[in-house]
Every structure is written in C-alpha cells, then in structure tokens.
Amino acid sequence: MFLNSYYLGNSSDQACFMSVVKDGNFVVHHLSLQLPLMRSLLKDLKPSISYLSLNELELVHNALKLAFEAHDGQKRPSGEPFIIHPVEVARILGELELDWESIAAGLLHDTVEDTNVVKFQRIEEFGLTVRRIVGETRVSELGKLKYKNEHNSVQDVKADDLRQMFLAMTEEVRVIIVKLADRLHNMRSLSHMPPGKKL
C-alpha cells in the first residue's frame, strides 16, 4: 500500500506520519485518540468474520482502516462516530458468512457518497469486485433504475423497476445483499433519525 513512511512528530494528543502512496502522492496520517475506537471496532467485528483466512482478514482490516480514515470526524444522527455504521453493516454480512470482498464493500459502501471522492480511487487496492460493489450500492444509483416506457403507465414502470433490479442482481447479487445490510442497520437505528428519514 505505502512505499515509504516518514515520522513528522507529535503534539500532545496525536502522532503524525506521512506516507508515499504507489501513485506518488503523499498522505498524512494522524494517529489520534481515535485509535482505541478503531481497535475496539475491529475486535467487535472479528467474531463475525472469523471464518475468513488470515490473508482475507488482513484485507478486511485494511478496508476498515480506509473507511475509518474516510469517515474521520463524521457523526451519525445519534452523535456516535459514523464509522460504527459501516462496521455494523460488515458485521451483518459476516453473520451471513459472505466472502471478504462483500465484507470489505460493506465497510466501504458509504465512502463514495459521504466522503471525498478521491478516496474511491484507493478502493481499487481491494480489486475490481469490491470497487464495483461499492460503486453500485450507492442509493443514488439504485434509485435511478427507472426509465420511461412508451405508455408510461405506473404499473408498467413498477414492473420495469423490478426487472431492472433483478437484472442488477444477476450481474452481482452481492450489491443487493450489501445494500440490504445497509438498510437493515439503518432500520435498527431509526430512533435517532430525523422524522423524514424514518419513512
């Protein structure tokens, strides 16, 4: 992942280091007081993904680190750190014993919509399958499955929507499973959502 890392010093609450990424760009990392949170989240996630190989566990851990970095400073409506949501999505997927790519996609599914788009390029490190699942789980993309037919009847449009959804499922069923896990966790935490989001 990183070619070289350089220690930049520390302040009272965080150490900093800079890494040179494969493409030559520099990334500055802040090892702040949030590291215990990341360790705790990984510890909580591990039992549900214990069936993965050591190599796969390392890839999932790297996905968690990227998601943690991408969502740094973001909060859920409940006030808790946003990273808890993707970890819970990954836990749901782990309980279904899905493959490491699905778990990684669950951790990264909100990075495209809710964070700096440049981060999406780093998702390529996990392979084309993870990138495709992450890209296609975006709510905005799934909501655009509609198209107008020549008669534009409501019943026909709904049927066309279902056909499009089933077509997406035949291409990559994991897209739908990750999206359902995302929605399931959102439903489990509805009490903290604004009234308009509860519908």
TrEMBL record:
Domain HD intervals: 82-187
Domain of life of the source: Eukaryota
Matching InterPro entries: HD/PDEase_dom (IPR003607), HD_domain (IPR006674)
UniProt cross-references to Pfam families, sorted A to Z: HD_4
PANTHER family, A to Z: GTP DIPHOSPHOKINASE RSH1, CHLOROPLASTIC-RELATED
Protein name (database record): HD domain-containing protein
